[in-house]
Design goal:
single chain, alpha/beta, 3 strands, elongated
Length: 78
């Protein structure tokens, strides 16, 4: 079976209970299925992308958009 897992963050470093649970699930699924992982990526956090092959067949890192400057009209309209 092919599985596409889409989330907001990579799983490493695993510093929260939800990440640890998800990591265990994905490792188990990856044993018998083709798991493809898509997540937003912060350029300063490289461990998540580097360790993704532990739990998925392929990983796609989507660049996280930069927040708008606090001086812009867009910031104040939010």
């Amino acid at each position: 079976m092919k599985i596409l897992w889409v989330t907001t963050n990579f799983l490493h470093p695993t510093n929260k209970g939800g990440q640890i649970r998800t990591l265990g699930m994905l490792r188990w699924l990856h044993r018998w299925h083709e798991v493809h992982f898509v997540a937003l990526h912060d350029p300063h956090e490289t461990e998540g992308v580097r360790r993704a092959p532990e739990y998925c067949t392929s990983a796609l890192a989507v660049p996280r958009p930069a927040p708008p400057p606090r001086t812009s009209p867009r910031f104040w309209l939010q």
